[in-house]
Design goal:
Layout lengths: L1 H39 L17 E7 L6 H16 L6 E7 L10 E4 L10 H24 L12 H11 L9 E7 L18 H5 L2 H6 L6 E8 L10 H14 L3 E8 L1
Parallel strand pairs: 1-2, 1-4, 4-5, 5-6
Antiparallel strand pairs: 2-3
Length: 267
């Protein structure tokens, strides 16, 4: 009888040790999972942009708002804005500039990042919440910024070179992203008091490259790839064309450290 009680007590002690071991193992597992999750978390600011500045791609959208667009051009650009959103990377940063006549024209009008649409999240509720944030805080304001191009009045000047200079200084020069991209939506007709392609129809960049105006306005676009959405206008038929891009703007961009990677004509 005494031996039976002793064995029973021993068995109870063994069960207690097993229980404690299981609880300890579960606790260690939870701690490990917590730190693994924490390492995978990315801290975001109010624009849904990474606080550490590690953007997989840094995209600037420069919208030339100095001339009105036709209805077909508005539809075309809106479609391309939707495609731009669909193909964007998670944590990609977008900085929107509008080229127009006002004192704040050299400042970004909008900065926001792609927070992800939740498709990578296994939990249904979290995925739905993420999708709502994606639409409200990223997709809708991005597309609206392109729509705003239709609500403009013609401007007296179009300082494209100077705008490119400020885009380089205010965004790209401070970016550590390995992939820098500029979406440039413009008719690309430079028009200022100092230099105007309405007055000067010589589109050989070599003629401009040695002038004080170019030395003053040359942007810093090192490592920047440009996707040009070239707005064609019937009134600019004598200015726009192959020479306008190939003999002037392409060497201008190369001399500034960048590259025109793609040209899409918007008519």
């Amino acid at each position: 009888m005494k031996k039976s009680k002793k064995n029973k007590k021993k068995n109870n002690n063994n069960l207690s040790l097993i229980g404690i071991s299981i609880v300890a193992l579960l606790f260690v597992t939870l701690i490990y999972q917590y730190f693994q999750l924490k390492q995978g978390m990315v801290e975001l600011d109010g624009d849904n942009c990474r606080v550490d500045g590690l953007f997989p791609r840094d995209t600037v959208v420069l919208l030339d708002s100095t001339e009105v667009l036709s209805e077909s051009q508005q539809v075309n650009i809106k479609n391309r804005a939707e495609k731009l959103v669909r193909n964007s990377l998670v944590h990609e940063r977008f900085t929107i500039y509008a080229l127009q006549d006002n004192p704040d024209r050299f400042k970004p009008t909008l900065t926001l990042c792609n927070p992800g649409d939740g498709q990578e999240k296994p939990e249904l509720l979290k995925a739905k919440k993420q999708l709502r944030a994606f639409k409200k805080e990223f997709e809708e304001p991005m597309i609206q910024s392109f729509r705003d191009m239709s609500n403009i009045e013609s401007s007296e000047s179009s300082p494209i070179m100077e705008m490119l200079k400020f885009v380089g200084l205010r965004t790209f020069a401070k970016s550590d992203s390995p992939d820098k991209r500029l979406i440039l939506v413009s008719d690309m007709v430079e028009h200022t008091e100092s230099y105007s392609q309405y007055r000067n129809r010589n589109f050989d960049f070599r003629s401009l490259s040695s002038t004080p105006y170019f030395r003053e306005m040359r942007p810093s676009l090192d490592g920047v790839y440009i996707n040009l959405l070239y707005i064609e206008r019937a009134s600019l038929a004598e200015i726009q064309g192959g020479d306008h891009v190939t003999k002037f703007w392409q060497p201008f961009v190369r001399r500034s450290g960048g590259q025109i990677d793609d040209i899409t004509y918007i008519n």
